[in-house]
Amino acid sequence: MPQSDPTDARDTPGSSVSGEKRRKSKNGESSRKRGYNDNTRLANGSTSHVLRRSSISKPGRDGRDEPTIKRQKRERRRRQTVEDGERDAASVNDDGNAEAGAAGALTRLDSPVIDFDGLSRPSVGTRERLEESPEEAAARLDRIKGAVRTLLECVGENPNREGLLATPERYAKAMMFFTRGYEQNVLDIVNGAIFQEGHSEMVIVKDVDIFSVCEHHLVPFTGKMHIGYIPNNAVIGISKLPRIAEMFARRLQIQERLTKEVANAIFEVLRPQGVAVVMQSSHLCMVMRGVQKTSSTTVTSCMLGCFERRDKTRNEFLSLINVNSS
Length: 326
Fold this sequence. Notes:
Layout: H1 6-11, E1 36-37, E2 40-41, E3 47-48, E4 52-53, H2 68-90, H3 126-131, H4 134-154, H5 167-178, H6 186-190, E5 194-199, E6 203-214, E7 220-230, E8 233-236, H7 240-249, E9 252-253, H8 255-270, E10 274-283, E11 298-305, H9 306-309, H10 311-320
């Protein structure tokens, strides 16, 4: 009768090296259920059922247990991220403008709410324009004239023909007029015209004509602005509200920012209970090009203080300027 191979007992599930069943613990649970690993490979290639405790008591996975290759890859990615960040930081020049990286990403810089040096936001050359001499102003006009002449040539026109001969100079003067808000200062416009009157009811100036230039396409957008505020004892000269709106409109703008800048400026100089600004305008960049919707109107608003907190106050303002009317 052939003898059985002793390895058969080892390879049979639930058996030990001697062929006996795995011993149970005192409480009757098998070692496998308690988290032991009994498959240990010996030097001769056989499997030994040595009871080895798994690390089930650890609250989390130990990073040292991670395979070496995976750990090295993670470390390389971390180093690459740090190097990319250092490289991006080094690409920012002294003026705070980020140079375009390899991916061509643009860095947007934060702007202050209102700058009483006359600049609503940091911009290249605006302080020089505010403080330039007559000679520097003439040199600026000459540069614009040269650029307009180049533009006329690029669109296929002859800048020397009669109708276009003086166009570069005319356009240069017109552009300086369109953007003369860069040469104005909020505090100079207000000029101390703030009076302690004890008035606490709503003050509204409606239908302020707005003419501005879209900064995206350099074409005009025009419309009406409605400005209201509730004084905190002090009132401002009534003509100062449209003058402040005009100053910010005479810059390269977008309607959303223009609305906020007017509201924030009034709030800063007057410190009222609240300020409300609503603007309705038509943009030639979407009337004579692009979607070409000639009857479309864009409406933006900015509510500060009590106009933002109280629905009743805000609705009263909107009703008085006829925005809520059908």
